[in-house]
Structures are given as C-alpha cells and as structure tokens.
Amino acid sequence: MGPEKAGKTRRGPGRRTAVPWVLLGLWVAVLAAVGPFAAKLADVQHDRAVDYLPASADSTQVAKIEDRLPGGEATELVLVYHRDGGLRAADRATAARQVADVARANPLTGTPEAVPSRDGSTLMYAVASTAPGTDEKKRDAFVNDVRDVARGTDGMSVDVGGPGALATDAGEVYNSLGGPLLYTTVGVVAVLLILIYRSPLLWLVPLAVAGVADYLSMGVAYGLHQAFGTSVSGQSSGVMTILVFGAGTDYALLIISRYREELRRVERPYDAMKVALRGCGPAVLASSGTVAAGLLCLLAADLNSSRGMGPTGTVGVLCALLAMLTLLPAVLVLLGRRVFWPLVPAYGAEPKARRGLFAAMGSSAGRRPLVVLASGAVLLGALALGTLNLPGPLKQQDAFVHRPDSVAAMETLARAYPGKGTQPITVITPTGRADATLAAVRGHAGVASAERGRSGGNWTEISVIARGAPQSAAETATIKALREDLGGSYVGGPSAQQIDLQDTNARDRLVVVPIVLASVLLILVALLRSLVAPLLLVGAVVAVWGAALGIGGLVFGPLFGFEGTDPGLGLLSFVFLVALGVDYGIFLMHRMREESLSGAEPAAAALTALRTTGGVIASAGLVLAATFAVLTNMGLLQLVELGFVISVGVLLDTFLVRTYLVTSASVALGRKVWWPGGLSRKPDTEEAGRREPVAVG
User: Fold this and answer.
1) Measured on CA atoms in the order 447, 452, 454, 459, is the torsion positive or negative?
2) Does 676 sit behind a cis peptide bond, omega within 30 degrees of 0 on the bond before it?
3) Residue 497 CA from chain centroid, whole number
4) Are 493 and 424 in contact (CB under 8 A)?
5) Residue whose C-alpha is closest to residue 77's, from 152, 179, 205, 165
C-alpha cells in the first residue's frame, strides 16, 4: 500500500505539469481552425445606411425596395462648383465639360442639369448611378472616379457631396478603424500594464493573451454572421476589439493579483493557480456574465446598429473570458515565478505591511458614512444636470471630426441655396397609385418639386425636393406630413433616415433600459443572495451614467465645439456603463460577503474588502477607461462621444462610487445591506462559515 501511494505521489506532479501544455496545444489548434474565418470578418463588414437604420422604419423599407428596382440601389451625388464673387463663363463651361465626362465614363440614371444659385456663385449638378448597386467597394470607386474628374481650377472650388459621397467618407473612417484602433489600444494597454506590474516580462502575458482572444473573436463573429445573419458594422467590430482588450485585461488583473497572493502561500505555481482560480474564478464568471447579459439585451432594440452590437460585443467578452480563464493561467504556470521578476513573490513570504491609499480612503468613508454618501449623491446629481446642456441631434454634416469633401459640399449648398432643399426625399409608392401620389406630393405646400423615377416589382420611385434646407425644421415637417398623407407609401432618403434614427433610439431606450436593469438585477440577486446590495449597485451605476452624460453636456458644445449629440449615445453608454460598472461592484461586494462570512463586523468587512480589492479595481478601471478613450481619437463624432462618456463614467465609478459611495453605504446599512439573506441577521459565525463556501478573493 505504501509504495503504491508513493508512486501516485511521484506521478501526480507530472500529470499536473502536463495540463498547461495541453491547454496551450488546444489553443494553437483553435487558432489554426478559426484563422481563415477571422481574416474574412472585414469582408462581411458593412456600413451602408440600411445596416444602421431601424428595422421597421419607412426609410429602411425605402432602402430595401430601391435595391429591387431596375439597376438596384442608386448612388446619388451632388457636384458643387463655387467661386466667391460669382462664377465666370469659363467656370460654367468647365463644369459642363466635367459633368459630361462623368456621364460618358459612368452609366447615369438621367442627364444631370445645372441648377445655379441666385447670387451666381454656385452651380449644382445632381448625379446618380445604379451601377454600383449595393456593393460598397463599387460605390466608393464610383465616388472617387467622379472626384478625380470634377476638379477645381484657378480659384473655382469643386466639392462632391450627396448621400453617396457621405457614405464613402464615413466608410473610409470605419475602414481605417481596424489598424489604428487595434494598435492604439494595444499601445495604451501595454503602457498601463508596465506601470502596474513594473516588470519587463509580466505585462506581455495578458496583452498577448488578449490579442489571441481578439483574433478568436473575429473568427467567431464571422461564423455568427454566416450562421444567423448577424450584422457586422465598423462600429460594432471596433467596440468588440475594445471590449476584448478592456474587459479581458480586467479579468487578467484580478487573476494575476490573486495568483501572486497564493504564490506566497502555496509552493508549486500549478497548485497556486488552482487555488487562485477557485477563489476569483466565480467573480470573473459572474462579471463577464453580467456584461454579456447586458449586451444581449440590445437584441430587443429596433435599430439595426444597436441590435447587431449586442451579439458582437458578447462574442468579444466571452472570448476574452475563455482566454483569461484557460490560456492565461497555462502560460503563467509554465513561466513560473520568474515571470514576476524583479518583484518575485517568494513562497512563505509575507507581503509588506503598509497603509495603502485605499485603506486611507476607506477609513475616511467609514468615519462619517452618511456625510460621504450624501455629498457623493449631491455631486453626482449636480453633474447629471449637465445633460440639459447636451447639443441637439447630430446632423450628417456634423458627424465627422475632420471635414471631408462631402461635408464641404453640403456647407456650400446651405450658404448658396438658403431655405431651399438640396437633398432629395425619396417616396416609394405602389405603381398603380403612382400618378395620384405624384400629384399629391406636388400639391404639398412644403414641396418645391417632384419627379417620377424608376418602377419595378409593383413599386414606383418619386424623387422629391423640399422647400426647406436639409435636416431643417421645415424639411422635417414636410417629411412627417408626407408620411401622414401618403397612406400605403414609404418616405425615405437621408433626412428621413435621421428622423427615424432619432425616433427609434427614443423607443429603444424605453424598451432596452428596463430589460438591462432587470437582467442585471436578477444576476446580482442570485450572486449576492440579497436584494439591498444589488439595488445599491444598480442605483450606483445608473447615477454614474447620468453624471457621465452630464459631464458630456458640459464639455461637448462649450469646450469641444461639437454641433450635435449622436441619437444612440444615451442607450449605448447606458448599456456599457451599467454592465461594465457592475463588474467592479461584483469584485467589491463579493469580497465584502466573504469577510462577513468569516465573522467580520459589517463596517470592518466593507473596509477590508476595499483595502484588498481597491488596487485591482483601480487598475482595472484605468485600463478599461483608457481602452474606451481610444475611441475619442477616431474620425466620427458618434465614436468620440461614446468613448468619452464611457471613459469618464468608468473613472467616476472606479474612484468615487466604488471607493466612497458603495463603501460608505455598506457601512451605514450594516447587516441590512444583505437583506433578506441570512447575513442580514447576526448568525453564529462558525456555523455560517461551514454552511456557505467562500467563493471569491
């Protein structure tokens, strides 16, 4: 019996050592399998208007029906020739020659006609072609070909605008996100990890694992698109990368912190990692599950871009979770203690006893919890008032950080044709009623002109020019009136799309926000076995969201000069801040619960939890805020605004709400924070410790 036991003991370490190598081999096999699919994600990424529009809106139906008309979707452009002080005869001749060259080189849907401005400074030509169809690459090629032909000469400027040019310019920004977004994110995370770990090697491990997770997420996202038709846009794929590196690095910070702690108590790295994962694994699983649940709630949105972001964001979070719970531990165990050099945690050593920043902050929150709580609540409430100062809805021409050619064209048109529509409104009507619909449209007070276009599939297209300028109050009123008066017809076009985006975002907020709150609350109740603690955490993250939006209102217009606010900012920032903010609440409250189960009094449990988890939460918060801040360097205002609000919200949540407000509220409530669970009553400590296992460090 003795020799047999001894043999098992000798074989055990070998088997344990093999596990990391097996995991590493499995990951190599997985990456080899998904590699071909990851490379194809860019091919299925689409940023056409229909990929962002509401699924049930008039403008979406117009876009879909236009795809089925003869020639398919039309790419509409406006060539704008302008000279300060007035165009010359030679300018008009040059414009006519260039437009003729465009017509000869491309199959157009009609003959472009010159529309001069009243002051004679500007000439406008409307150009449209169905040759590109729905192919974005062909559309971009057509737009760029027109721009190559239409060039200014000797003081005369030429800008190519219109819906097709705007789409091409936006597409160029989205296409440029992949490389710069990834490189900038990696660089930011690398710098922060070097500062956090102060090690020449350790920072590389979580960063490399996050890169592997990002590659895996691209392959899975492509498979999801192929299997279920999930839409993939530049916005959703960019946010997926941010989530992989941001959330993944957060999980790595928690795991590595617990692993370092266990290495001082456990001799073998393999065994120390087992204990670390057993301790912090449930918290990582719960936090990632909360984020995934919150993101999946976006499936209830009617806006295509929001609904598509739910699955792709969830893929990013789950791939990061899988990599950090399997590949990261395997690599760390194989590298051994030396990966922490020069601050190697020695077996049997005690960490240096020192009064840290979070211990001091916790003590200040614990001395006067009600004062701290009230002061923090007043501050957050005051900041939230800034939402009243948010700029109005973002217009198409204001959506770019750097003004492209298409926006310059729109600005010139607005100055040269004041009070006149320069962007077509598209009406799609049943062919049998086309004449009656055309007559009704022409008779409308807000319509300057209307022309019958293509017919096919029992539908007819009518191009309408409103009397009001694009996206003005007058044009908006005309579009809404046409929709009310033309029963059975659809009214779309660029301006109608903006109206639908605003209306649908308002609808989605009313639907998605309660679902997110309910799902997150249910997860927290099941995890913490309490009702008060989950309500406290959810209330805190909602307050953070309001304050972060309020700060946006204080700086977007007055400081940054933004002309508008993206209609989807409120919903997307809410989902991300609530889901990601609750992450840190789980880390803190779970440790607080562990201390309470060990017999600590409520105040001591709260302060100990802050002291032991504060550093990790602060590091994770900095990394997550920095990764979302990368979006503020992108070329579209909707990404800049989203990145700013989420970054500010994460920092508020990390350094104000978690540190002071949640801690002070927990101290003030005492055992009531665990109501109605067993911890809300003073139990026999020893018996409670036997009944409920300790889950998280």
Assistant:
1) positive
2) yes
3) 21
4) yes
5) 165
What band does 333 get if pLDDT is binned at 50, 70 and 90?
very high
Report residue 348: phi and psi, to 5°.
Answer: 85, -5
* Beta-carbon contacts of residue 379 (< 8 Å; ≥ 6 apart): 547, 656
Q: How far apart are CA 149 and CA 514, in angstroms?
A: 53
pLDDT of 160 strictly over 90: yes
State the Cα–Cα distance between residues 525 and 517, nearest whole angstrom. 12
Q: Residues 6 or more apart from 511 whose CB is under 8 A from it?
A: 300, 301, 302
Count the neighbouring beta carbons within 10 Å of the beta carbon of residue 447.
21
* Predicted confidence (pLDDT) per residue in 267-305, tens digit: 899 999 999 998 888 878 888 888 899 999 999 999 888
211-254 pLDDT per residue, tens:
999 999 999 999 999 998 888 888 888 889 989 998 899 899 88
Decide the pairing of beta strands 459-466 and 447-456.
Answer: antiparallel
| Cβ pair 211, 319 in contact under 8 A | no
Q: Which structure tokens are listed for 496?
A: 């109608």
State the Cα–Cα distance between residues 642 and 635, nearest whole angstrom: 12
- Tokens representing 360 are 């001091």
DSSP for 617-658, written as a single string: HHHHHHHHHHHHHGGGGSSBHHHHHHHHHHHHHHHHIIIIII
Phi and psi, residue 344, nearest 5°: -80, 125
Encoded tokens for 505: 């975002």
- Distance, in Å, from the CA atom of 509 to the CA atom of 574, rounded to the nearest integer, reads 9
Take residue 570 and report the two structure tokens written for it. 């409120």
Per-residue confidence (pLDDT) for residue 162, from 0 to 100: 87
User: What residues have CB less than 8 Å from 525, skipping those under 6 apart?
Assistant: 531, 534
Q: Residues near 224 by Cβ (< 8 Å), separated by ≥ 6?
A: 230, 311, 312, 315
Cα-Cα-Cα-Cα torsion 410, 415, 419, 422, nearest 10 degrees, comes to -30
Quick check: 121 and 84 in contact, CB under 8 A?
A: yes
pTM: 0.83
